[in-house]
């Protein structure tokens, strides 16, 4: 049967529309940034759009055209936001680079992406100077500052951002871009093998932005003030820089200062209502709030993602500080999150402790997202809350392939379009997903699987534990045994037997670790998660330190 075409206009879903909308209807809504140079910078959507148009002229003058890749290595700040819009606006691809990646990885991804320009924040100039000779595709480096703050630099063709855009007109005639065109690029942090490029289409970014503006998700509105702690250099700060203009919300960009005191100062002075970040950041904030007897007086929603939210953390925010949380699961390949824990009334009206059970799960799939778990043979498992298997997802903001990497694409995406995530999970009959572990972090002891995430979350509930990590330690009898690593809170004196006795009341005997290692610092990955590979190297290849 031939298709009867609908008779509606085909206005393309492209990201520049979001900023145009905000500039038109929320022109005086503020964007506040803690600048790398020091002072707080304030302007509004109208000014942001005017400067974005100047930047678009500058990009065009440098020869940037449709499909070109332009890289950024920068904190959350207003210039970065302008790049977020101007680059895809001219049809190019904004490639955000995580500065915490190893230098070799940055070289690999810039060369793999064939970035033509690199915009760099002052902080990262020395980092880029060290590797610049190997960034063969980069024609010019733009330092994101004004003339007065330009450093002496060995970077070839170094330009200052402000000088670049200064004399350009404040209106730009945007080209018509196909919504399926790539608009952004981000590489996974490559814990195994080389980083893989996830190439977001303009359409996927737009659909994602609309989805997070729904009330069940973040529900950004003109009454909100939103501070993304999650960095704009990794998975575009979970889409917040796109969702906020769409909702007409104020944006507060924290720059380089991500310590709890600096964040708290902005939360209060800018009357922040919504924030988002990884558990590591929130653990430090809770500690700060408690030690200084502070409250979050304007916050209506705090999002936790990127790693499992420990029950004790959810409880602290919800009960002790009265801040509702939303917990979501996602990965670079899923644009931001594919699930979130906005509870249905059936769960939300349960007694507090039971309700908390659901809030610490990773939530239900968002509309448009298909989600399932499969066994080792690839067969679908039942959604019974018990059967655990690899989590697979599919939908309009999920990667369908990796950029210029056929082998990795083939390995991760199957013929029916499902992305195999490498995470092990259960799904209950109501659709709540619970991540059991990353496949490679599960511990197999005496033939039984033990979840490192479970143990970590439980250990975090022990008074005085600031952070916990569990890794598999090879064991001649059991194959592997869980090893618990604990960072005590400031000034806390903890005893291993007390923690182990506490865990013994919570999990099966087999899952109780045999030993605890106390560390003053637990290493983190470029995305702020516990660096388990490094921990394994540090503790298992140097057993002198593994006493406890
Ligand atoms: P990378 O893989 O580069 O570390 P990603 O941001 O892509 O960075 O990480 C995605 C992974 O993070 C997921 O596959 C999952 O293992 C973990 N993750 C993300 N959110 C959660 C969550 N809410 N609970 C448990 N694990 C999570």
Description:
The chain has 548 residues and is of the alpha/beta class. The chain has a domain at 442-540: GMP Synthetase, Chain A, domain 3, CATH 3.30.300.30. It has 17 helices and 25 strands. The strands form 5 sheets. Strands 2-1-11-10-12-13-14-15-16 form a 9-stranded mixed sheet, with helices on both faces. A hairpin with a 5-residue loop joins β1 and β2 (40-44). α1 (16-25) packs antiparallel against α2 (45-61), α1 packs parallel to α8 (240-247) and α9 (260-269) crosses α10. It is globular and about 70 Å long. The termini are far apart. It binds adenosine-5'-diphosphate. Residues 188-189, 235, 305-308, 327-332, 362, 421-423, 435, 438, 525, 527, 529 line the site of adenosine-5'-diphosphate.
Which ranges are low-confidence, i.e. pLDDT below 50, for 5 or more consecutive residues?
A: none
For CATH, the homologous superfamily of the domain at 442-540 is named as ANL, C-terminal domain
Adjacency order of strands in the biggest sheet = 2-1-11-10-12-13-14-15-16
Distance between the termini: 71 Å
Q: Approximately what portion of the residues adopt beta-strand conformation?
A: 15-25%
Question: How many strand segments?
Answer: 25
Report the top-level CATH class of the domain at 442-540.
Alpha Beta
Structural class: alpha/beta
Overall helicity: 25-40%
CATH fold annotation of the domain at 442-540: GMP Synthetase, Chain A, domain 3
Tell me the major beta sheet: 9 strands, mixed
The overall pLDDT, averaged over residues, is: 94
Number of helices: 17
Radius of gyration: 23 Å
CATH architect. name of the domain at 442-540: 2-Layer Sandwich
Shape: globular
What ions, cofactors and ligands are bound? adenosine-5'-diphosphate
